[in-house]
Design goal:
mainly alpha, MetI-like fold
Length: about 290
């Protein structure tokens, strides 16, 4: 008598997240796909079907080429650096050093801050003349640098903010994975004469690969959906040096009111992320050692 009731309870509990997922993810994406084949409606002309015209416009959009380059460079730098830093911090807080609890809190603290707060904090750090970096430079007799106002340094400055914000979150996953590594495997490697570096690369790191698969996919998604700090810190400038794809979609859709082209860019972003995620799973999952 209880089994049918338990099954219905399980189905009811599953319906809520499924409805939320469909309502806020699948349905908007489907609407974007449909909208990408139509042009914008005006006060005197309704929207009409234009086929692949909006996708043809992607090929002729010079600014999109710059935005895609910025986004690719942003991802290629932030993802591996964040993963390497997360593993390093996890190794540090997993050791027997004094003050581990304080280090864990300090490493994880940036993750708890809203991105808007983080962006405003780093605005002070980068402020030319009065900011923290300017004060440090003045101690060594170096001139102040306008990190966010120079096209050569603006994107790199934004990368530092993202890495600082995300490394602490991924550290938690690696810390949990490190604590699940069997101690007998590391001890056996030491008995064979392996040093700490050899133990890490030959024993520990391969066992962290499943965690790396998870972290890498999430870091990829985060790299392409970053928009808060771009809006607060640079608004895509100077000269589109920090314009990332999601910010460009936001600007086209809500700034220029070009909903059809915004939908087309959304399809480009979703399709690109799906392809990259599948490639990541295929490459990294082959090297994963599951227990």
């Amino acid at each position: 008598m209880n089994k049918p009731l338990g099954l219905w309870n399980a189905l009811i509990l599953l319906c809520v997240p499924i409805l939320v997922l469909v309502a806020f993810t699948h349905y908007p994406l489907l609407q974007s796909v449909i909208g990408s084949f139509w042009n914008n409606a005006t006060a005197i002309r309704p929207s009409r079907f234009v086929g692949l015209d909006n996708y043809q416009e992607l090929l002729n959009d010079d600014r999109l080429a710059r935005v895609l380059w910025n986004s690719a460079l942003y991802a290629l730098v932030t993802i591996p650096v964040t993963i390497a830093l997360s593993i390093s911090m996890a190794l540090l807080v997993n050791s027997k050093l004094p003050g581990r609890a304080f280090m864990r809190l300090s490493f994880f603290l940036p993750t708890m801050l809203p991105m808007i707060a983080v962006a405003n904090l780093w605005l002070f750090v980068y402020a030319p003349g009065i900011g923290l970096m300017a004060q440090i430079f003045s101690i060594f007799g170096l001139p102040s640098v306008n990190f966010l106002g120079d096209a050569d340094t603006a994107l790199g400055a934004m990368m530092v903010v993202a890495i600082w914000k995300e490394a602490g979150l991924f550290m938690i996953f690696y810390l949990a994975a490190l604590q699940s590594v069997p101690a007998n495997l590391k001890e056996a490697a030491r008995l064979e004469g392996a040093g700490p570096i050899r133990v890490f690369f030959d024993v520990v790191l391969p066992l962290l690969t499943p965690t790396t698969v998870f972290v890498a996919v999430n870091a990829l998604l985060n790299a392409f959906r970053m928009i808060d700090h771009v809006v607060v810190m640079t608004e895509g400038g100077p000269n589109n040096a920090t314009a990332l794809l999601l910010y460009y979609i936001y600007q086209v859709t809500f700034g220029f009111r070009d909903f059809a082209y915004g939908a087309t860019l959304t399809v480009l972003l979703a399709g690109g992320l799906g392809i990259l995620a599948v490639i990541q799973f295929k490459i990294l999952d082959r090297r994963a050692h599951y227990q």
